[in-house]
Amino acid sequence: MHRWLMGILACLATLTLAPVYANSIENVRVWPAPDNTRVVFDLSETPAFSYFTLYDTKPYRLVIDFDNTNRKIDVSKVPTDSLLISKIRLSTPKDKQSTRIVFELTEKVDPTVFPLAANDRYGERLVVDLPGRSIARSAPVLRASDLKERKVTVAIDAGHGGDDPGSIGPAGTYEKHVVLKISRALADMINEDPAMQAYLIRSDDYYVGLKARTRKAEEIKADLLVSVHADAFTTPQPRGASVWVLSNRRANNEMGRLLEDKERLSDVLGGVEISIQTDDTYGYLNEALVSMSMDHAMASGYEAAEEIINEMKKITRMHKSKPQHASLAVLTSGSVPSMLVETGFISNPEEERLLLSNKYQQQIARAVYHGVRSYFTRKPPDGTYFATNRASKHVVRSGESLSVLAERYNTSVQAIKERNKLKSTVLKVGQVLDIPSSG
Ligand SMILES: [Zn+2]
C-alpha cells in the first residue's frame, strides 16, 4: 500500500475514534448583581444539558452537564467576582462526549437554568441564575426618614446592563456604562435633598428585565420612575436629548418605533426567561386595562417630563422640545408616573464624547434633579415634605447655606437675599425664608 494511502486511512481511523462533539462552549461571563449572580455560557449550538446540586457536604456544588460538548476556553480562568461563587472548574464528565462544569458555591441556592436562542449579537446561550447576595455593596435600600413628613421616592432606572450593552457609540462607548454613571450622580443629588430619596433599580453592571424594573418601582412605592438612556440612530447626524412618556398605542414616528424595537431587544440580549414574559410585557396596553390610576400615572408622567425638559434645555440641545410618546414596557406601571430620558445621541460622535465626560454627566443629572424637584414642588404628593412646605417657605436647618438653598430650589443666592431683604449671607437654624419661584 502506498504511504500516502496509509496516511489517509490512519487519519480516517483517528476521526472515527475521537469523540464527535456537536456543541462547544465558546465563552463564559459572570454578572454579579446585589441579589443574584448570572452566569452566561456562549455555545455554538442549542445546548442539551442537565444539572443537579450537591448540598450535603461542603463545598456546596452546582453541577452542570453539557451533552456532546467540548470547550474552547479554560473555565477555571473565568473571573467570577461573585460572593456566591468560590470556584468554577471542570470535573470528570459522565461520558466522553460531554463536559461537566462544577460551581463551588458559598451558599445553598436554588438555581434557575434556561437556554436563550441566538440573535444578532449573541449565539446560543445557557443562563444560570443563582439567587443570593453577590456583591459586597448591599442591595439598594431606602433610608429611614428623620422627617415627620415622608420623603418623596424617586426610582432611577439605568437602562440596559450585563449582557445588554445598549447602544454602542462610534468610539466604542457602551450606553449601559454611561447611563449608570448619570443615574448614580442623580441618585446622589436626590439623596442630598432632605425632601427626597432615590432608589437605583440597577446599581451595577447586570441586567434587570423590563417588567421587573417597573415591578420594583411599584414595590418600593416610588412617586416617580426615571429611566435613563442614551439614544442611537442609524446615521451619525441626529443629536440632542429627549424625554419619553407612555402611549398606549405604538409610536407614530420613526424615532419612537425605533426606540420601541430597541427596548424589546434589551430583554432579548439581557436575557429574560421566555416563560416569565407576559402578553403586556411590551407595553401594548389593552385599553380596557387602562385604569383610572393608570390615567393618572400617565398624566403625571407627562407633567414631570415637561419639567425635566425645561431644565435640560438650559444645559443641552434638545432633539424634541415636548415629551414624546411611545409604547415602552419600562413605562407601563399602573401606579408610578414614569418617563424615559434620552440623555443625548451616543451615535453622534460629538455627543458620545459629551456623554463620556464627567462634566456633562453631572450637568444632565442636575437638570433632571431640578426638573424632578420642580415637579414635586408643583404637584406635592400627600403627606410629603413637599406638601407641608408648599408655600415656598424654607426653614433653615443645620449646615445649610444660601448657596445650598439656591442650588436646591434652582434659584440664585441674590434672588433669595433680595426676596428676604437679607443684609448678610449668614443664616440661623430655624430662620424662615421665602423662596422665590424658579424661572
Ligand atoms: Zn437605551
Automatic annotation (TrEMBL):
Its EC number is 3.5.1.28. Gene3D superfamilies: 2.60.40.3500, LysM domain, Zn-dependent exopeptidases. InterPro entries: AMIN_dom, LysM, LysM_dom_sf, MurNAc-LAA_cat, N-acetylmuramoyl_amidase_3. It comes from the Bacteria. GO terms for molecular function: N-acetylmuramoyl-L-alanine amidase activity. It comes from Pseudidiomarina salinarum. GO terms for biological process: cell wall organization; peptidoglycan catabolic process. This is N-acetylmuramoyl-L-alanine amidase. SMART domains: Ami_3, LysM. SUPFAM superfamilies: LysM domain, Zn-dependent exopeptidases. It is an enzyme of class 3 (hydrolase). Belongs to the N-acetylmuramoyl-L-alanine amidase 3 family. Residues 1-22 form the signal peptide. The keyword Signal applies. Residues 392-435 form the LysM domain. GO terms for cellular component: outer membrane-bounded periplasmic space. Keywords: Cell wall biogenesis/degradation, Hydrolase, Signal. The lineage of its organism: Bacteria, Pseudomonadati, Pseudomonadota, Gammaproteobacteria, Alteromonadales. It catalyses: Hydrolyzes the link between N-acetylmuramoyl residues and L-amino acid residues in certain cell-wall glycopeptides.
